[in-house]
Design goal:
Elements lengths: L2 H10 L2 E4 L3 E7 L3 H6 L11 E3 L2 E5 L1 E6 L5 E9 L8 E6 H14 L6 E4 L5 E6 L3 H8 L7 H5 L5 E5 L8 E5 L6 E6 L1 H13 L3 E2 L2 H11 L14 H4 L2 H4 L10 H10 L4 E9 L9 E4 L7 E9 L4 E9 L8 E3 L2
Parallel strand pairs: 1-13
Antiparallel strand pairs: 1-9, 2-7, 2-8, 3-4, 4-10, 5-6, 6-7, 9-12, 10-11, 11-12, 14-17, 15-16, 15-18, 16-17
Length: about 325
């Protein structure tokens, strides 16, 4: 299938993509949630609820910071059962995995919480498009969760049928792209079988290039691409969903609160439409027409069907008003 066909399927019907590579960690022990609370910026998930054959939960999205408020990684936290039993499953971008492992190893007391690689080696696919909920309701959840519940769920909601963490899959609602999108997570054999069933049922296959186009169109940053160890979450615009200002203390909180209450950041990640130009590389500088000082830096760029040209994610300096035309220097 061509990229334009895959894009059309993902925005008008449904498409599936394999989301590798990812890293998966577990945090277990006597009090893993309490220990993680002082490390992550967001809320700690509550235990899931079992109703007959269906288990429902809500995952959390967070950042992990240095004392100076710089990112070590972002992370999704799943609590798939009782905290002192299965513990927490952490979905981590590969670019942040080494730093996060080392950070958790230093800051989590081993008597209370232990970090290890997820034993089952989960894999993940994403199913995207207006038809995604119907396909997953039938093929992943056996019609035990109806498509209306899936389609109307809040970001981070997840469902599983049968034993959670066993041979089945967890279906989670995320909004990393513009069209409705769900992740299916589980053992490789189960996820590959689900992907095959989805394709046999009419779901189109798409590549990561199409996923990246949808992600940039949605303005969602990816760690290792648009965020790195020099990024403060507020700069990347993830603070609204990654930071819980009502929770207790966490590493880097002082910097985040100071920015919120009394300060500002000197740059922010924005969508920038560049039009009919060659696709710029990451790091390309952006200028206001007629000025010699760079006012932005590209992190991601795609040829966007919806925008009708090259669309970028770029860090733009404070003071550049929304709507100001930015151009690449020839």
């Amino acid at each position: 299938m061509t990229a334009p066909d895959a894009y059309r399927a993902a925005t008008e019907d449904s498409a599936v993509v394999v989301r590798e590579p990812r890293s998966w960690l577990t945090v277990t022990g006597r009090a893993p949630g309490q220990m993680l609370k002082g490390v992550v910026t967001g809320r700690i998930p509550e235990p899931p609820v079992r109703d007959g054959e269906v288990t429902r939960g809500r995952a959390g999205y967070s950042a992990v910071l240095t004392p100076k408020g710089k990112m070590i990684s972002d992370v999704r936290l799943f609590l798939l059962g009782e905290e002192t039993g299965a513990g927490f499953l952490l979905d981590v971008p590969d670019a942040g995995a080494d730093g996060l492992r080392a950070h958790l190893g230093r800051f989590l007391p081993p008597r209370m919480a232990r970090v290890s690689e997820a034993a089952s080696g989960p894999v993940m696919i994403s199913v995207t498009g207006p038809g995604a909920a119907a396909h997953l309701s039938r093929l992943a959840l056996g019609l035990r969760v109806d498509q209306e519940e899936l389609a109307g769920a809040e970001e981070g909601s997840w469902w599983a049928v049968g034993e959670v963490g066993g041979e089945g899959v967890v279906v989670a609602r995320w909004q990393d792209v513009g069209p409705p999108s769900f992740d299916a997570i589980g053992p490789r054999a189960a996820v590959e079988a689900l992907r095959s069933s989805l394709v046999a049922g009419g779901v189109a296959e798409m590549g990561l290039d199409t996923w990246e186009t949808l992600r940039v169109e949605a303005g969602r940053p990816a760690f290792g691409v648009d965020m790195d160890q020099d990024t403060i979450p507020v700069e990347a615009g993830i603070d609204g969903r990654a930071i819980d200002h009502a929770k207790g203390c966490y590493t880097g909180q002082e910097v985040i609160v100071r920015i919120r209450d009394r300060g500002h950041v000197n740059r922010s990640l924005r969508n920038v439409f560049l039009g009919d130009v060659p696709l710029p590389a990451a790091g390309a500088e952006l200028f206001v027409e007629g000025e010699s000082r760079p006012m932005g830096r590209v992190t991601s760029a795609v040829l966007s069907p919806s925008a009708g040209g090259v669309l970028a994610l770029a860090y733009v300096r404070r003071g550049v008003e929304s709507g100001t035309a930015l151009v690449l220097r020839p």
